[in-house]
Each structure stands twice: as structure tokens, then as C-alpha cells.
Design goal:
It contains 1 helix and 9 strands, in the order αβββββββββ. 28% of the residues lie in helices and 36% in strands. It binds copper (II) ion (CU).
Length: 141
């Protein structure tokens, strides 16, 4: 008899749990939605960079400090990469693929980026510049 009561209790708990599931699911969805809204509001500074022997196009990118930066990198000839040593950032840039690099610069200044994969005789000259400025310097907020 005790076994039957225990069994009944477990079934009740399962039904109760199942009943709570949709509510839990909705809360999750709402969280995800508000997260998406926040991401959209704090827009990233997005730039596309094309790498090829032996340049990055564009070679200079200007971004604001303390705002999210998103770089879309691709190569049109062979494997390169991008290394922003002072920011401790590095990513592969493969031909025909898009590499997304996300970061938020905390300090203003000029940061050189280079290709760190040997790509031919001009490899050592394959460089670009990331210029980080204060947001109010560029006339915004
Ligand atoms: Cu290279």
C-alpha cells in the first residue's frame, strides 16, 4: 500500500512538473528576446576587411572606444591572418571564408595589425591600422 502511495506521489509530481514546463519555457523565451533587444540597441561598429597579398582593404579602420567592434574578415587569394598584438587578438583569415572578430577596445590609440602567416615575399609589409578614438571626439554623444 505504501508503495502505491509513493508511486501516486511521483506521478503527481511529474504532472505538476510537466504543467510548469510551458511557463518555464516562456520565461526562457522572454529572456532570450530581451537579450536580443539589448544586443540590437548596443549596436556594434561593423566593418568588412578584405585581405589579399599584401594588403588589408581598407588598411585603416577608425572605431570608438568602449563600443563593441565586429570585424568581418575574408581573403580573396590565400590564407592570411590578422594579429593585433597590443590587444592580444588574433584570427585566421581564410580564402572564401568569413571570420568574425568581436572585441571592445578599452583604450584609445593606434593599434597596428599585421598578417602573421607567411604569405609570400611581401608578407612582412602586410599591415593595417586600427585607430581607437573617444566617442565624444567623433561627435557622437
Ligand atoms: Cu602574410
Amino acid at each position: 500500500m505504501l508503495k502505491v502511495i509513493r508511486c501516486f506521489k511521483v506521478i503527481c509530481e511529474l504532472i505538476l512538473f510537466a504543467g510548469l514546463m510551458p511557463a518555464f519555457g516562456e520565461a526562457k523565451a522572454a529572456d532570450a528576446l530581451s537579450g536580443a533587444t539589448i544586443m540590437a540597441t548596443v549596436e556594434a561598429q561593423e566593418y568588412s576587411i578584405i585581405a589579399r597579398n599584401y594588403v588589408y582593404l581598407p588598411g585603416t579602420i577608425v572605431v570608438e572606444k568602449n563600443r563593441r567592434v565586429r570585424l568581418y574578415l575574408t581573403s580573396i587569394d590565400r590564407a592570411h591572418d590578422i594579429k593585433i598584438e597590443k590587444m592580444n587578438l588574433r584570427a585566421k583569415v581564410n580564402k572564401g571564408e568569413v571570420t568574425v572578430l568581436d572585441f571592445t577596445p578599452a583604450e584609445d590609440g593606434t593599434y597596428e595589425f599585421v598578417c602573421d602567416i607567411y604569405c609570400g615575399p611581401g608578407h612582412r609589409g602586410m599591415k593595417g591600422k586600427l585607430v581607437v578614438v573617444n566617442g565624444n571626439e567623433s561627435g557622437k554623444e
